[in-house]
Amino acid sequence: MDDARAVTPEGIMQLGWGFWGSKALLSAVELGVFTQLGGGPKSLEELTRSLKLHPRAARDFFDALVALGVLNRDAAGAYANTAETALYLDRAKPSYVGGILEMANKRLYRFWDGLTEALQTGLPQNEAKDGGEDLFAVIYSDPEILESFLRGMTGVSLPAAHAMAALFPWTEVKSFVDVGCAQGGATVAIARAHPHLTGAGFDLPVVQPVFDAYVKENSLQDRVRFAAGDFFADPMPTADVIIMGHILHDWDLAQKRGLLAKAYAALPAGGRLIVYDAIIDDARRQNAFGLLMSLNMLIETNGGFDYTGADCIGWMKEAGFRDAKVQPLVGPDSMVIGTK
C-alpha cells in the first residue's frame, strides 16, 4: 500500500508537457536572447526593449528560462547566461550550436504534430506530405533554408567532432574526407585540432560557397578544400580516413549499404571509415535521443532510420571491412570505426 501511494504521475506529466519548455527555449534562440546577454547581464526592461517584446509576458518568459536552467537571475533582478548557454547559444561565438535548434524551431516543431499519422501510415509529415518535394529537394532548392540547414548541421556535429578529434588516432594518418560535410563544422574542427592533416569536404556543388566561407573564417584554406559531388552518383574522394557524420541515418537499408560499399572502394588498404550518428545502444533501452531521432527520420524521410552499433558493424563487415568497433563520443553520439 505504501509503495502504491509513493507512485505519482509527476514523471508522466513532465514528459507530456515537455513541449512547453522546448518551445520556450526554441523561441529564446530565435529571438537571440542568449546572444543579447553575451556582453553581460541585462535588466528585465533592457531585455524587453532590445528584443522588442510585449511587456505582458516578458517577465514570465525570462523567469521561465531561469526555472528551466538556461538563464541565471541575480539578486538585483538582472538576467545572465549560464555557463552552457554562454558557450553554446551565443551566435557571436564559434562554439554556437544553436543552428540545429533554429532548424528545429522553423521546421521540425510543426511537423512533429503529424507523428501519430506517420506511425499509422509510415509516410513523411514534412514538405513531402501529400505529394510535395522530399526533404532534401526542399532544402537544397532554397538558399535561405539551405544555409539554415547547413548551420544546423554544424550545431549538431560540433560536440561529436571535438570528441572525435580527441579520441581517434589522427597521428597515424595524413588525410581525411568528410562526406556530406554541410557547412564544414566537423571538417574544420578536426583540421584545427591536428595541423598535420589535410582535409576535404564532399557535398553537392550548391554547398560550396557556404563551406568555403566557413573554412576561410577559420583560416584553413591552405589545408581544407571542397570536393563537389553527389555521394550516390559519384565516387567518393580518396583519403586515409572517410567520415560520414549524421548521414547514414537519412537513408533506407539498401542505400546505407550502398554508401558503405562506396566508402570501402574509396579507401586504401588499411584506410578507415568513421560513421557517427546518435547510435542506438544494442539493447535499445538507453539512448532515447537516438530512438527519437529515428522517429524524426520517419517524419522527415522516405526510408531513413537510426540503428545500433551492432547493426552498423554488421553492414560494414558485409561491405568488406575486416574490423569494426563502436566508440562513444559525447551525449547520444557514438562513432563506428571500420578498417579496410
Mean pLDDT rating = 94
Q: What is the SS-derived class?
A: alpha/beta
- Sheet bearing the most strands, described? 7 strands, mixed
Figure out the total of helices. Answer: 16
Q: Between the first and last Cα atoms, what is the distance in angstroms?
A: 60 Å
Helix share bin: 40-55%
Structural commentary:
It is a single chain. The chain has a 7-stranded mixed sheet, sandwiched between helices. A two-stranded antiparallel ribbon has the order 1-2. Helix 3 crosses helix 8 (99-111) and helix 10 packs across helix 11. It is an alpha/beta fold and 340 residues long. The chain is globular, with a radius of gyration of 22 Å. It has 16 helices and 9 strands. It has helices at 2-6, 10-16, 18-31, 33-36, 44-50, 55-67, 83-88, 99-111, 115-121, 135-141, 143-167, 185-193, 208-217, 253-266, 288-300, 309-319, and strands at residues 71-73, 79-81, 175-179, 198-203, 224-228, 241-245, 272-277, 323-328, 334-339.
